[in-house]
Amino acid sequence: MAQISLDNLSFRYPGATADTLSGLNLEVAHAEAHALLGASGAGKTTLLNLLSGLLVPTGGALRMNGRDVSALPGRARDVAQVFQFPVLYESLSVADNLAFPLKTRGVSRAEIAERTAYICEELQITALREKKPHALSLFEKQLVAVGKALVRPDVSLVLLDEPLTAVEPKIKWRLRQTLRKVQADLQVTMIYVTHDQTEALTFADKVSVLTTGGILQTGTPEEVYAAPSHEFVGHFVGSPGMNFLPSKVVGVSQGERVGFRAEWASLSQQSALSDGAVQGLVTRIRIQGTRAGLPYGLVTVATEHGELSVRGELSLGGEKELVVGDSVAIHVHKYVAFEAQHKVGEGELV
Amino acid sequence: MKVKAGRWVLCGYCVYLLVPLYWLLSMAFTANADIVGEFSVFPRDATSANFAEIFSNPVWYQAFGNSLSYVVINTLISLAVAVPAAYVFSRYRFLGDRQLFFWLLTNRMAPPAVFLLPFFQLYSAIGLFDTPLAVALAHCLFTVPLSVWILEGFFSGVPTELDEMASIDGHSFLYFFFRVFLPVNRGALGVTLFFCFMFSWVELLLARTLTGASAKPIVVVMTRTVSASGMDWGVLAAAGVLTVLPGILVVWFVRKDLVKGFALGRVS
Amino acid sequence: MPVVLIVAFSAVIPLMTVVNYSVQDILDFNSRFYVGLDWYRETLNDPRFLEAFLRQLGFSFTVLLIEVPLGIAVARGIPKTGRFTSPILILLAIPLLIPWNVVATIWQMFARPDIGLLGVAVNAMGISYNYTAEPMHAWLTLVAMDVWHWTSLVALLAFAGLSAIPNPFYQAAELDGASKWQVFRYVELPRLRGVLVIAILLRLMDSFMIYTEPFVLTGGGPGNTTTFLSQYLTTMAVGQFDLGPAAAFSVIYFLFILLFCWLFYTSVMVRRDES
Fold first, then answer.
1. What pLDDT, on a 0 to 100 scale, did the predictor assign at position C37?
2. Element (H, E) at C13
3. DSSP string computed for B165-233
4. Which strands sit side by side in the sheet containing A334-339, from one edge to the other?
5. I need a labelling partner for C109 at 20 to 30 A (CA). Which of A163, A220, B67, C41 fits?
């Protein structure tokens, strides 16, 4: 298990005019589940390849447990990787696949048997031991791939490159759960790369939001959600993303703009005393459940500052049910203030 | 920088290929008398007379045209037939499918000599004797099985999830086939196209049997490069050099497809 | 709907061949069959047939044993990207595109001890090399020519197969600490299986039927030390006009190839269906 440090890491592809990654700084603690969240093209794959040894950084250093491994080839790094689709040895059985990374390192047969049995237990794939990959479902194959990545007791780091991609949507959550459980049980340092913020927030201890060239913010899922340090983070994280309004409109003096989450605002009937509230028309209602017997969900409101989303009870003042076309006022209760896209403060309103 | 052992093998093999090719080239630029006369590593009096002979003599360049036409026709027909057939073999299981598949391959296993007489009679009977079409069709006997064989192998490797995804997305079969499936299999198509072209281009027996004076292919002309003084090695060599060129064009045309193989699992 | 189309297409080929076979049947098979079972017995007992057969076996197996591993090794050495890939593929394709009689002609001149590059070079090294006089030299030259001519077939097919392997498989093997041999055995070979079956069967069949190249190069000689099956058959049928035995011979020839290929094919396909 390892502690990973990215120390001013940069990478530029040969022949490219600009760095794909520049000056990245990141600390991943030992046994931490860390998610790298970013849109396509942000450089996630490049970063993964730097971590796995496929690429060598053009600037800065990559350290594992303090040791500079920037130039070490993949096989010397004690790193394992799970890919978007199951990458297994097709001609070997599940048991032999799991044993492979151990066999190449000269581990004794007894130890191999013991360790693979343990991994099978953890992932609940013992019944599949003698089968060959072609006889397994995609989900099972990916489980085996995860097992293969975890099989070495001394593995420093497990990289996961959007591992849920190939799995059916209906059972993605099962794989996610298994990953979480296994990570905690085995205390493995995991770096999980994804463009899906739900995956990132539910899986990780810490999330880093990556955008072209750099890491915008690293923090716990709660921090990244509720206290984004950059407008992009606020927008990218959460479903829906943050709402943005000019600060003055809501009566806030900090910064140029404020961002607020859908659940940090409430709706009321439009009236003359809606001071510091934003007027708009309801364009869409999505029921997401009930709370205290009342329908609850996401309301999309069209205002002069764009479309805003508010999450809460689907009624006005607890009496009249909300309907598309209603005129409403949005009251912001909690906000984060941004200046030139960077967070400058946060606060609450009555 | 590590040099893979494979690179050495490749280099050695390339040298092995190049030496006789150089010899061919050298002979092409040497007058026949000099070839037979004395040994020299480089052509002593390099001449382009051999090539001139080929370019000026209508027998030669018409023959080129004839060969090209039946090879192109054959390749088109073969692919048109083999692609759907291979798709069916790879996707569907029906009664006797394996037997049918193997039977198809056996067509290629028979020595072509076995078919000489029947084909001669058949194509004469339907009035196609001495036409490129006859040779093209006759060649289908072995190019189609080979194509189906290669294509089926590649097609089977493409997961059926691809077909399902396309139908879920509401696309018609034709759309799926031409816009999704075939592009994914570009590598296989490239390889198959090359082999169809190649086997048809070099085939001699059937091409000779089914053609007379008007559709005489290049392969036949090359067996008859005899002048008054015996075999004209120089002209033959020059013809040999030129004969390789269409094939090179084909390889160049499909080179990217060969390297692509096909994409598996690039889902994102 | 497409199935109907496809079955229609597939019917074209059987139709074609049925026509051919039936014509063939009418012509010489049927009549021979009832009248001349003796022909088969005679052929199978002919010592020269057996000799040619054994020579053919020897040749085919030697050639296969060299060309398949060599072809794979060459394919593995071809860079998948970069500016050398296309020229290399073109170079590899050239021997395949030369009409077979020209191939033999090239080697005929090339190997001549008096005016050929190879012949002169080998003799200059002190070995008295003459492929028209020495059977062993003739064999070696034939094998060398065949390897030169056909290895590219295996190499190109193998290369297309290798190119189909996605990079993550190689990456994973690297992280697993796999040796080069293990990468070949567990990543590449399993995925090359289909392609190799095609390559091996093609070379097996074609080398077993080989005619033009040995005929032009050695004429079957010296003596009949390089007379393989096809040439013997042709001599019988065309040279000596022994059509009876020749027909029997053809059938035996074809059946043997069929048997061989069927055995190989089903054994591999059975394994494929299992998996």
1. 66
2. helix C2-24
3. HHHHTT--HHHIIIIIIHHHTHHHHHHHHHHHHHHHHH--HHHHHT--STT--HHHHHTT-EETTEE-H
4. A243-246, A257-260, A334-339, A342-348
5. B67
Can you tell me whether residue A228 is helix, strand or coil?
A: coil
Tell the residue number behind the tokens 């496809």, with chain if given. C6
Contact list, C118 vs chain B (CB under 8 Å): 19-20, 23
- Predicted confidence at residue B185, as pLDDT, reads 82
Share of chain C above pLDDT 70, in %: 77
For residue A22, the surrounding DSSP H or E stretch is strand A21-28
Phi/psi at B129 (nearest 5 deg)?
-60, 140
pLDDT attached to residue B268? 21
Tokens 């020839």 belong to residue: C253
Residue with tokens 């520049």: A22
- Chain B residues touching A85 at Cβ < 8 A: 264-265, 267
Measured distance CA(B233)–CA(B211) in Å, rounded? 24
Separation in Å, CA of B182 to nearest CA in chain A: 22
The encoded tokens of residue C220 equal 């079957």
Write out the E strands in A170-326: 190-194, 206-211, 214-219, 243-246, 257-260, 265-269, 278-291, 294-303, 306-313, 315-316, 320-321
- How far apart (Å, rounded) are the C-alpha atoms in residues C272 and C161? 16
What integer pLDDT is reported at residue C255 of this predicted model? 76
CB A126 within 8 A of CB A117: yes
The half-sphere exposure of B53 on its side-chain side, counting CA atoms within 13 A, is 19
Question: What six digits make up the tokens of B63?
Answer: 């023959």
**What is the spatial distance between Cα C210 and Cα C229, in angstroms, rounded to a whole number?**
8
Tokens of B5: 């052992």
Exposure b/e, B89-106, CB count within 10 A at least 16 = b: bbbeeeeeeeebbbebbb
Pairing of strands A33-38, A206-211: parallel
What is the per-residue pLDDT for B230? 65
Q: Which of B43, B45, B32 is nearest to B226 (CA)?
A: B32
Please tell me whether residue C122 adopts helix, strand or coil conformation. helix
Q: Which residues of chain C have pLDDT under 50?
A: 1, 4, 22-23, 26-27, 29-35, 274-275
Paired tokens of B258: 């060969």
DSSP string, A116-183: HHHHHHHHT-GGGTT--GGGS-HHHHHHHHHHHHH--TT--EEEEESTTTTS-GGGHHHHHHHHHHHH
pLDDT of C122 reads 84
Mutate to test the interface with C, among A78, A79, A81 (most CBs of C within 10 A): A81
Looking at residue C92, its pLDDT comes to 93
Q: Which of C144, C269, C140 is nearest to C201 (CA)?
A: C269
DSSP 8-state code for residue B29: T
Query: Considering the entire predicted model, what is its pTM?
Result: 0.84
The answer to whether C177 faces chain A, any CB pair under 8 Å, is yes
* Buried b / exposed e along A124-142 (16+ C-beta atoms within 10 A): ebeebbeebbeebebbbbb
Which are the contacts of B49, defined by CB distance < 8 A and separation ≥ 6? B31, B234
CB contact at 8 A, A51 and A157: yes
Beta-sheet pairing, A327-332 with A265-269: antiparallel
ipTM: 0.86
* CB pairs B-C closer than 8 Å: 251
DSSP helix/strand/coil, A192 = strand
Q: Which of B84, B107, B115 sits opposite C5 (nearest CB)?
A: B84
**CA B87/CA B185 separation, integer angstroms:** 11
Contacts of C275 in chain A (CB under 8 A): 132, 134
pLDDT of residue B18: 93
Q: Which of B158, B180, B183 is nearest to B170 (CA)?
A: B180
Low-confidence residues of chain B, pLDDT below 70?
Answer: 1-3, 113-114, 117-118, 225-230, 261-268
